[in-house]
Write a structure and sequence with these properties.
The protein is mainly beta. The chain is built from 3 helices and 42 strands. The longest helix has 12 residues, at 8-19. This is Lipoprotein.
């Protein structure tokens, strides 16, 4: 925290630094500071509220050791350029580029909780020019690059003025000991240099990756050409998982790819941090034979973690995989994944809303592969996520849209599946038994207000006790018809636009439409994602 004492002159200088001029490209907005009045002027501020945003011009007044909002006027949207961003979810103001003389800075302001009128303190003031490699890293192969390796058991911040390179496994914190926080600023780029390079946030530690629409965080392979160029991002938490012997509490299990690393616990609300406006690209290297990492792996991650506006693109293994836990996600973009786009097991009981799954025409397996537990299909806690507003676009090379098996539960709402050889498969005696029967469902495995349109819509798996077609057709609002999509967005006249229903759960935004997008004007993937069209 950058602290300023109660000296008006010093704060005025700081305000000039922070709010002088946003000037990182030709479309940069400018701001002015009047030292006579202590007023700073932001011509363009985007205020984020979920997938929607509003634009304002704003004025702040220097008062003691804070900046106080004194005026905010609505202006026309000004996307497609660098701009000041206020993220209401994290209460942070991000100023990407402030030029003062020959120096350029990134600044972060933090809202003072409960302040009225709104007041802000200065959380970060960081040069945008490379300053050399900090002590937790070593010089990289190129000017402006620094290498991260091994265990890091201190709070660190990765900034956009440096190209960060992962060397081997990089572990943040110990296993519920020596906890640390990894902060990643907007616009920061992190690269695996080759193969088995990965970033792992251990139990008890946090990642604070706060990108913005105009400055997303990028974690990628070096060539950005094919899956498997590096490992992936892994979060390990203390939320409940299954897979232990009966009576073991808390259940803690080793990760399948790196068996020395454990996850799981008894805190459903565990908090592993924030991942927002982040691209995870070209991951999936096998860290040992036949054990590839996913783009994003969530091991026992709790519901206190914020995952919103995250893209996984061109992963060699799965896009996002949950091993138990209660992790919650919104606005996922899973594109050209070469195995399963969304995968869960070990008792995941989280939530997800607004998910785009778009498979490559050349590779890919399932849109969703869902298990409870591979070894003991009835292991507790049983997997039972709540999912809503998924748009799942398959390809002829794929296997199926949904594979629901190995005793999993799920409550699926407002979802459209199209373009796969098979839309929905239910498999395994434990899965069928958990579901109940059409007309007398248990509530453990349901799908409502959803559309399917595949070469074969339904497939009955092994040990079926009812037909999947009967299961689907017995539930409210389901349709087997063309959803009328234009790419991944609803076309004019699409039945999706009014076919949805609200989920009675506080995590979910209230919607009346099916799929990840309300209409052709609701493309929340714009600007912050890696090109996938």
């Amino acid at each position: 925290m950058v602290r300023f004492e109660n000296k008006r002159a010093e704060l005025a200088i700081a305000a000039a630094f922070l709010l002088g001029m946003v000037a990182s490209n030709s479309h940069a907005a400018t701001a002015s500071f009047d030292p006579a009045t202590g007023v700073v002027d932001f011509p363009v501020v985007e205020v984020l509220d979920g997938a929607t945003s509003s634009f304002y011009s704003a004025k702040l007044q220097v008062t003691d050791n804070e900046l106080q909002l004194i005026a905010a006027d609505v202006i026309s949207p000004a996307k497609g350029q660098q701009r000041v961003v206020f993220d209401s979810a994290t209460a942070a103001v991000h100023v990407p580029s402030v030029v003062v003389g020959a120096e350029e800075f990134y600044a972060k302001l933090q809202l003072v909780p409960g302040s009225e009128p709104l007041r802000f303190t200065v959380a970060q003031l960081v040069s945008n020019n490379f300053q050399g490699c900090p002590s937790f890293s070593t010089p990289g192969p190129n000017q402006g690059s620094c290498v991260l390796s091994g265990e890091i058991k201190q709070d660190i911040t990765l900034t956009k003025n440096t190209q960060w390179i992962l060397s081997g496994g990089v572990f943040i914190g110990g296993n519920n000991t020596d906890s640390a926080t990894l902060t990643i600023n907007p616009g920061t780029k992190i690269f695996g240099q080759q193969g088995a390079d990965f970033l792992w946030i251990r139990r008890g530690s946090k990642i604070m990756a706060e990108g913005t629409p105009d400055n997303p965080i990028v974690i990628s392979g070096p060539l950005q050409q094919s899956g498997g160029e590096w490992g992936g991002l892994v979060l390990a938490g203390n939320a409940p998982v299954n897979g232990c012997n009966e009576g073991v509490n808390p259940c803690e299990i080793p990760f399948e790819a790196i068996t020395s690393e454990f996850f799981g616990g008894n805190n459903p609300e565990d908090n592993s941090g924030v991942i927002k406006y982040t691209q995870i690209l070209f991951a999936g290297f096998a860290v040992r034979p036949n054990e590839e990492l996913n783009g994003l792996t969530l091991n026992g991650v709790g519901s206190g973690t914020v995952i919103d506006f995250v893209q996984v693109h061109k992963g060699l293994d799965d896009g996002v995989e949950m091993f138990g836990g209660t992790a919650q996600m919104k606005h996922l973009v899973l594109t050209e994944i070469e195995d399963d786009s969304l995968d869960w097991g070990s008792g995941w009981r989280g939530r997800a809303q607004f998910v785009l799954i778009k498979q490559s025409a050349n590779d890919g397996d399932r849109g969703v592969e869902a298990d409870n537990n591979e070894v003991n299909n009835d292991s507790l806690p049983r997997a039972k996520p709540i999912l809503s507003n998924i748009t799942m676009l398959g390809a002829p090379v794929a296997t199926e849209g949904f594979l629901l098996r190995r005793g999993t539960g799920a409550n699926i709402w407002n979802t459209v599946v199209t373009g796969f050889p098979v839309c929905i498969t239910i498999d395994g005696g434990a899965t069928f038994q958990n579901a109940g029967t059409p007309g007398n469902l248990s509530g453990e495995l349901t799908m409502v207000n959803s559309f399917v349109n595949c070469a074969t819509n339904f497939k009955d798996g092994v040990d079926a006790t009812f037909s999947v077609a009967d299961w689907f057709n017995s539930q409210a609002g389901n349709k087997t018809e063309d959803p009328l999509l234009n790419g991944y967005l609803p076309a004019t006249g699409s039945p999706l636009t009014l076919g949805g229903a609200a989920v009675n759960d506080p995590f979910f935004d209230t919607v009346d439409y099916v799929g990840a997008f309300k209409d052709a004007n609701d493309d929340w993937t714009q600007e912050w994602t890696f090109n996938f069209n």
